[in-house]
Give the backbone structure.
Amino acid sequence: MKRFWALWLVLIIFPVSQSQAKVYIDQLGREMTLGKPPRRIVSLSPGITEILFALGLEHSIAGVTEFSDYPAAAKHKPRVGSYVNLSLETIVSLNPDLIIASADGNRKDDIEKLAGWGLAVYVVNPQNLQQILNTIQDLGRITGQEQQAKTIVADMRRRKQAVTEAVAELSRRRVFVQIESNPLITVGQNTFWDNLISLAGGKNIVSGKATGYPRYNLEDVLLSKPDIILVTSMVPTGKEHQQLAFWMSWKAIPAVRDDRVYVINPDLVDRPGPRIIEGLERLARIIHPEAGFSQP
Amino acid sequence: MTVTFKKVVFCSLCLLILLVLSALSAIYFGPAKISPLEILSIFQQGFGGSTQGVIILSIRLPRIILAGLIGAALAAAGSIFQALLRNPLADPYILGISSGAAVGAISVILLGYAAGGWCIPLFSFIGALLTVLLVFYVARTREKIQTNTLLLAGVIVNSFFSAVIMLLLSISNGHDLQGILYWLMGDLGQADYGKLVLILPYILGGVGVLYLYTPKINLMLLGEDEAGQLGVEVETTKKILYLLASLITGAAVSVCGIIGFVGLIIPHIVRLIWGNDYRLLLPASFLLGGSFLIIADTIARTIISPVELPVGVITAVCGTPFFIYLLRTRKVL
Amino acid sequence: MSLELSVNGVGFSYGDSRTLQDISLEVGCGEFLGIIGPNGSGKTTLIKLLDGMLTPQPGDIRLNGVSLADLKRSAIARQIAVVSPGLALNFSFNVRQLVLMGRYPHLNNLHFEGDKDYRIAEEAMAITDISTLADRYFHELSGGERQRVLLARALVQQPQLLLLDEPTVYLDISHTVDFFDLIKKMNRERELTVVVVSHDINLAADYADRIMLLDRGRIFRLGYPHEVITAGNINTVYGRKVLVDTNPVTAKPRVTLFSDLLHQLSKEANRQHLRL
């Protein structure tokens, strides 16, 4: 309770007493004080990087994590290690005025350390599409790009609306997602995949049976009779043909029988950033081609 | 205790029945509820039927056969390594030989020579063989191989090859290969008849030839000098045994990754029941190893169904207490 | 049954240092040869050479005219058996199993012992008085029992030549005499040729027909016990003063150790005794 009151005090007093410094509460409920709008931002996940680029902050980004490959300009930003294995030394040496971390992926003690050294660390924790929209708005607010954020979020809302309205009356098609083939790994509840599939008018066959990214029994895939199978592949490696060929031998699966096994870029679905709306539209086109979405 | 031809035939028959029984009960378990009667009619109809038919004949059956074959191979290979090193704790997994085989398989896939498929077991075999030599070299202090040094050598070699596996998988773009999980924990989930045909000749041929060497192996258990004095060409025999045991291990690892402890548990159980005569121990371990891995894999795929556990988790859960027991209590097997 | 083992100019070295040099001898059928010598004189190496486990360099060892190097191990094992001291097993076998293993060189490709093999094993266990131990585990036996098991295993090989390397080193005096009596009996009754390496000079002198005294890898003397075992020879080779007299039971030379310290102490004790 004490902390709660202290928080309020800080929130009320600081903006008035100090001309610039503002206190923000991040998505984990941590406090963070920020002076003038940040100009040296370090992003600790590829999704955050995409959001920052979309907000027009390209020149304010001081560092990004590995695999931050979108947009193309992100590839030229200094790297601060990977997602799980951050190089704290590199981050500090970049002299950032804001670090944006992700609760799902970055290690908690890394975040604590950085904050403990007096750096401003803002942690985001989106779990579904709605929360991604909130995240974009939050990041817009703390970086002083509120207007930009509003525009992006409004556009995404509109497109999401279009999808959900178009599929609202349609039957829910059964979908199976294959993340890895050997061992067979899929997606369960509490994932962006699950959320997006259901928004796009489908039903993840694993939903209700498992959460996260479980090893899965092939037999249950046959039993659940998915109408659609999604095989994830980041880049065209030629390997996806083998993956498709693997499924081709299971004619008992409706998806295979009806030739509805698709390769999809997972970055569009499991990266919490603005492009996720493209992922939603792509899923909707795959699941309900009859709904007639136009190509963007 | 003494082993006669009759006894070998009788025990093998009993274990064969056990193997068939475990396979038959394993075919009944799975996410899909299919009654024994339905299974029977599926077997009569053959391929190309209902979803149930596909589940039984194309998913469960090849997986069960593969599990049986791999378990049999690992148990046989384990018993041979135990004889060669005259140490009851020798096992392809504990000694790092399985990791070496995995490195062999991964290398050939990375080099892109895996097109034919048949050369993956071969490279896996080369990896296993080189690892055996390495472990042997590291563990050998003066004349004798001490248990401690041997286990230490295994640990070192194992962690080295695990690192190599990680390295190879990191520098590849990840999609040429199956995941790290597959190689380090073992998986039977994508069994098909092609894989069976690929490794069957290596394993059956290898164990068949090994059987001819069982009287020599018995004498080798007494020590190399003793074996030589009793009429065994020790050096030749050792080389052949190393080759065959590595070949069998390599073939097993190349299709299912690293599955540990089977080679430790099974021969030891057989020793407890029937003693150390390899004329009985080898076939008995082979058959019992098959039953064991079939049961372990059935547990792995059904215990939290439809989510699966790596079968290596089950074998390690059974194997680790066993290993500790052996290490602490049994001096003479 | 005839056996002729001829050793011609044999030498051997482990690495740089010569272990054996210029060893030549003939062992005839039914002979009992004792090999003695100090530590490191090459006795065990010689046994391994005689069994073909090591290959002489230079020189040649012939068994009935055929070089050991040209014989398969199983062919050698059908004619030569070895008993070494203190076999330690990591794997348990019972006595019968272990004795049956001696049949290996005689087994055909079927790999399983037949009735004849079992009969031979039972007979050997009876001779060595271990029939009652047949179902016991080897590693549970006492040192004396173990050596008798190993002897039984050597006997079922039905060898013509028996090589014994310190066979009684872990045995007490009573068991030692029993063991050697048994060997001597086999030597006499079955014309089994025996070569025994022993640290115990008296034992070798009592049982062997001939004695070979090795000194730093060379034959120092080879001959009848009374020719080889003299105070002078022993003093030269072992660097130790000894008294040699005659064993009243066997009429063979008998060695008594001579210690300067003990000699002096006993003299002093004597003097004190006289003074009192």
